[in-house]
Design a protein that fits this description.
Blueprint lengths: L1 H10 L5 E4 L5 H12 L3 E6 L2 H13 L4 E5 L5 H15 L4 E4 L14 H29 L2 E6 L12 H21 L4 E8 L8 H4 L2 H10 L12 H8 L10 E4 L8
Parallel strand pairs: 1-2, 1-4, 2-3, 4-5, 5-6, 6-7
Helix pairs in contact: 4-5, 5-6
Length: about 260
């Protein structure tokens, strides 16, 4: 009984409202489901309204408390309007998961300026805009959790990923600034840096047998991550268990970047 009590006290998200961007599929959908199972009401965001409604309906059918907010994270006016609407409907916003991202792999010399800007706008500027809007709601509450989904490529260079790597490195820097500015308001900001996971986002890599085997051989755990491998880190950082964790980057990669 005591063990159950302390787990509930530290890790339950009951009564909290969470917003997950890029949640129609992949990591975002998995994180939304996990936080809803932990007791939160989760607002799923995506710019693909049709896919978003399908995912919300599926989670609702599972008995989970979820709703939808379709907007583009790069549209500042839409972001502010949506976040204010969520706060108005729910009475508060406790957790933000900045997950929306796009990718475009090619050599540095082949990127156009427009392709560079598109990735930076979504993967970095979009996270700033949503975090800014969320902080405006969280600060008067005196509490909140901002969790940015970064990447191990922010720590190690890899060819054909110039804008994505730059955006994720910038996102880790933004995380530290948010932690410094809002910690006194009861808002923590942390990042998670996933390694190689079996998701739709990495589908192009997963079709390359040689690369799949390289990741498995290079990673101490000997495998790619499954989406649920990220869930414990998300629940932890969103919960009271991480109340004194602020400005941290939690790497979830099976040990890949820790070894030579």
């Amino acid at each position: 009984m005591a063990a159950t009590s302390i787990l509930d006290r530290l890790f339950s998200l009951s009564g909290r409202t969470a917003l997950v961007t890029g949640a129609a599929r992949g990591f975002g959908l998995m994180m939304a489901r996990g936080m809803a199972e932990a007791g939160a009401h989760v607002v799923l965001n995506d710019r693909d309204g049709r896919a978003l409604q399908h995912s919300v309906a599926a989670l609702t059918d599972e008995g989970l408390e979820v709703s939808a907010a379709a907007f583009d994270v790069t549209d500042a006016a839409a972001v502010n309007s949506a976040v204010q609407a969520i706060a108005g409907q729910r009475g508060r916003l406790d957790i933000l998961i900045n997950n929306a991202a796009i990718q475009n792999r090619k050599p540095v010399l082949e990127y156009s300026a427009e392709e560079w800007r598109a990735i930076i706008e979504t993967d970095l500027t979009g996270c700033f805009l949503v975090a800014q809007a969320a902080a405006r709601v969280m600060q008067p509450q005196g509490s909140g959790r901002i969790i940015n989904i970064a990447s191990i490529v922010a720590h190690v260079g890899r060819a054909r990923l110039a804008p994505y790597t730059s955006a994720k490195a910038g996102l880790e820097g933004l995380t530290r600034v948010l932690a410094a500015e809002f910690g006194a308001s009861g808002i923590t900001a942390n990042a998670i840096a996933p390694g190689y996971f079996r998701t739709d986002f990495n589908q192009a890599l997963l079709t390359d047998t040689a690369f799949v085997e390289w990741v498995e051989g290079r990673t101490p755990t000997g495998r790619w991550g499954d989406p649920e491998d990220l869930l414990g880190a998300v629940i932890y950082l969103a919960s009271d268990a991480a109340a004194y964790v602020n400005g941290a980057v939690l790497t979830v990669d099976g040990g890949l970047v820790a070894t030579m």
